[in-house]
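Below sits the subject:
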Amino acid sequence: MAASRRGRQAEAARNDLIVLAAAREVFAAQGADAPVSAVASRAGVGVGSLYRRYGSKDDLLRELCLLALRQSVSLAEQSLQECDAWEGLTRYIREAVAQGTGALAPLAGSIATTPEMWSASRRGRELLGMLVQRAQTAGALRDDVTALDIAHLIELFGRLGPDATESASPERAIRLRLLAIALDGLRVERGELAASPLPGAPPTTVHYEARWAGEKR
């Protein structure tokens, strides 16, 4: 009985990831107002199945956001295991962009958030801060870059949705090319000064979180 329950839980977790990938693709293409039916169609499931699993559309969106945040936490933890600090940071950035993390950004302010979402978000940024600090200590990352700079960079490059071989496009190829240029712009050799200072003040936590704090209707 216990083994059967674990099997059902594992299958549900796999299905959640399929729905998350579908939602990222749909919201990247159609925005926050995309219907649940589009997500269901992309995931290859019925709308009724989604509602039985998640309840309302807002419940579905909250669950997808929480799952994505936890996915980012797991990715950051794995990236911190890299022996090379620069490789750990760039692995995190590249994989987060490939997952299409930024595709859920348009949902900011459109749904009520939960304590679980805030906890996962702050834990993810804490781990990202560790990746950034480690790379700076190693002399590989310019000193004026912050964890929130990296978070916004990932969001910007991830707005096209997740990478997939069957959905290769010129836009995605360009994204990879520009991401490589951006990563080179972040890197310095130990003791080397950045070519020019970054303009403006770094992004703040207040601004970063404010987008999600107010529910827009």
Notes: Residues 2-30 form the longest helix (29 residues). Residues 2-213 form a domain with the Tetracycline Repressor; domain 2 fold (CATH 1.10.357.10).
